[in-house]
């Protein structure tokens, strides 16, 4: 029997006489993607700026921010995307994992999280066409295409560039392991270089790294996974985040994304975080959608996650991200078997201690109003929520974009 939505009561759902509460389901310890967690709520990878611009090492302020998050009660933290080589940086003051010199900074970050009993995994990525550090301003992409956002030409990668990129990803994973991180997450989502390989818009290659079939365009991903396993060993947890659909005209569909997920499970990735859309695609299908209301339109990739959950074996865990705001929705999705865990990004920018609040018995949904104003705060330092700050200062006024 399906749970009826009622945001005024504590999250419960009934199925065949069982009575599932938030405390008895989501907040119970579990093993996710081979990592022990105290609950099933994950901080999804979130770029927060706050790294040293030159070295990409975390500044003390950023380390404090991560510590605050870890103390806030989440079961596991995924770092913001880190760049695997110097021409793959997406944003200013982004964390780097491109050099051995980044190991001690990352180790500090991990150790702060571990100090509060919170595991941490590192998201690894390359920005490709959207890199801000490309040599001579020419960004790398799977093929010679124009960047759909700037119109600027990108340079299609040579085979030897692809091979060295595979090594860079694997070395980055090794560095995460040496930093004592609990695993790595390969970023295949939202439009960066690995999404670009999956994309028929960016990938027009006629060689072994392209083709009509998404699994052919995904060849680089499988080679990276293999190389990571080789260098880090079978025991090091290996997660991926996917955009189940590109959410763009002529981009790949959710059916293709679901097939990809099946194949990722077949090669035994430990967990698949299901997101969707890209920053160059349709705004209404974007990864961080605006206008989410608890109990109304939460968890916008739930259908696709469910389809993936049905198709992959239990050895690969499915994590849902995107617009989750209430305990009721998470309990309901967990009860239905849609996903084993739930990831949050913006709600934890607004309320880093949200999970503690929920654990204390407060059943109110996340305060985040999904306006995306936080995405524009990186310039000023570490990403923050202007809506909550204004509220705390008693001058609450939603930014004009809200
Ligand atoms: C400021 C900001 C930074 C983000 N940085 C990343 C990132 O580094 N890697 C990533 O995979 N997703 C990133 N995302 C997307 C989130 O992880 C998440 O998939 C999306 O916001 C939907 O979840 P939410 O509704 O809980 O925010 C970012 C989102 C925001 C708002
Ligand atoms: S600015 Fe605050 S309220 Fe708006 S989306 Fe970001 S975290 Fe949520």
TrEMBL record:
InterPro entries linked: Aldolase_TIM, NADH_flavin_oxidoreductase, OxRdtase_FMN_N
SUPFAM superfamilies from the UniProt entry: FMN-linked oxidoreductases (SSF51395)
Keyword annotations of the record: Flavoprotein, Oxidoreductase
GO MF term list: FMN binding; oxidoreductase activity
Source domain of life: Bacteria
Pfam families: Oxidored_FMN
All residue ranges annotated as the NADH:flavin oxidoreductase/NADH oxidase N-terminal domain in the record: 26-360
Keyword Oxidoreductase among UniProt keywords: yes
Alphabetical list of Gene3D superfamilies matching this protein: Aldolase class I
Protein name: Oxidoreductase, FAD/FMN-binding protein
